[in-house]
Amino acid sequence: MRCVVWIAALGLCALSCARSSEPAASACRAPYASRPALESRIRRALESDPEAGPLLARAPADLALCFAPDGTGVVSGSTLLLNEAQSQAQLGARVAHLLHHVAHGQARTSGHAESADEAPAVALEARVRQRLASR
Length: 135
Known about the structure:
There is one protein chain. The protein is mainly alpha-helical. The chain has helices at 2-20, 36-47, 52-57, 88-103, 118-133; strands at residues 64-68, 74-76, 79-83. The protein has a three-stranded mixed β-sheet with strand order 1-3-2, covered by helices on one side. A hairpin with a 2-residue loop joins β2 (74-76) and β3. α2 crosses α4 and α4 packs antiparallel against α5 (118-133). The longest helix is centred in the N-terminal third of the chain and has 19 residues, at 2-20. Residues 1-24 have low confidence and may be disordered.
């Protein structure tokens, strides 16, 4: 009987290990896609920025950056929807802008200038873009 239990336990362990090695489902939905290398470069650039770094550090652990050729640049839950046609400096600055909204409790943004928090986010984006572009 002990042998059967041991074999069953090994089978469950093997099944569990096989499942854990499967890639996690992407938070990005079509037409958006994950771009791990681009996301990594953006995150590294923002980590060293004096204003964007703290925002990135406070971002949700499940924050996802999703890219599309004509992306809108908005927050949707813990997903940032971005325009991959922009330069890396523009993308990094836009991420900082969107993280500003996230830090102020906005789980969804529309990009409308009428939003009370939009002016400070736009100003932050301009400052971060200038710093990133000068690197």
